[in-house]
Amino acid sequence: MAQPGSGERDRKIIEACLNRILHSPSFQGSKRCQELLRYVVIRSLDENAGPLKERMIGAELYSRDPAYDTAADAIVRVKANEVRKRLALYYGQTGQSDPVRIEMPVGSYVPVFHWATPEVAVEATAGSPNGAGTACEQEAAPVAREPVTRRRLLAISTLGTVAAVAGLRWILREDSSPMELFWAPFYHADQPALLCIPARDRWFFNPEISRALAAAARQGSARLDLDLRPGDIAVVPSGEMSIQNFRAVFHLASHLGQRRVPVDLRLVSEISTEALRRRQIILVGAYQNPWAMELSAGMRYVFESENEGSRESSWVRDRGADSAPAWVVPRLWPYAEQVRDYAIISRTHVPAAGQIVVSLAGINGFGTQVAAEFLTTPRLLEEMVRVAPAGWERKNCQIVLETRVVHQVPTPPQIVAVHVW
């Protein structure tokens, strides 16, 4: 390992290698990672630059207040971890012949420059058309050195590949918490996450009508005669949301906000099909969210119900089993006291668009609330990982939760099923 000399030629080679990295497939699609790597390399090459500290990077690169709390705002650490992963991928695939290997050691933001051995550099130069050298060395004059045998070159190249793969595995292990693995596509996205919130129509009644309806509800009247006039009833589309759904949205938006992930809150009626193709998406609720209902059409676990209003009963259907549903709510709140609720969480990949869609919903709002708490609580997500098969983070998955409801307050959820495919 060696740091570059002070000569202009060394700097040009490093900058050329940096440019090649930033335009490689490993870094394409992540503007923030490109910006961070460019920033730390150029700053480290500047002899008059001060030390590279987390708070300074956050202030200068991500427009944070110079006195911001780095413990609460981890954007620099998150992006640095992703840069390390992308560098390991680059050197394990297309960067093995670069004359300079750029690394950012764990625990530091100061890049280290590993210069290739003279033998590798010369062999690459000799094998290039017109003796032009590697892509990063074309700006520097070739220097004659003793040639090496093909076998020795192959051994050195193989060791470099093994080291790159080992480094990648170490980095992935360093930052492989269930929370990071589940939410990584959202944490590292270049566009705001789209949080689709559930809402239903809000009804307004003339005060006389409201009093008559309230009295009939208290008395349990079987029949109510109303003399309605124009203007007695007004409807505001998508004007109402339950407190449980509100809490779910709040948990999700707060969690992503703590990771400095911008969130775009939209009503179902405000979302276009085109917007769904370009963003990482969270769909909250089921019955007031047609996008979530459409997504669940081909899933193993789905909601089903029969009857309506005070006679409605609902359950979670397991399409992979022939037995009768086990997760049933026979009568829904507020028509009856609800003692338990069930929720389904789905996390699916959309390969053509490079998206992750997360959907969470309960039979009633209690299940939706605890599903959001589950996805934002490290301890609860860790319980899912213990029963999920290896590699779940790269696949589609569904989680079924059960919560007991005590005086309209849901208790922490229990996992009753996990399906990964």
Quick rundown:
It contains 13 helices and 15 strands. With 421 residues, it is an alpha+beta fold. It folds into two domains: 8-175, no CATH class; 193-199 and 241-420, no CATH class.
Give an overview of the whole structure.
The protein has helices spanning 8-22, 31-45, 54-62, 75-93, 118-126, 150-174, 178-187, 207-219, 243-258, 273-278, 290-295, 365-375, 378-387; strands spanning 100-103, 112-115, 193-197, 200-205, 233-240, 263-267, 281-284, 301-306, 313-318, 327-329, 340-350, 355-362, 397-406, 409-410, 414-420. It is α+β, with helices and mostly antiparallel strands. The protein has two domains: 8-175, no CATH class; 193-199 and 241-420, no CATH class. β13 and β14 form a beta hairpin. Residues 1-6, 118-133 and 139-175 have low confidence and may be disordered.
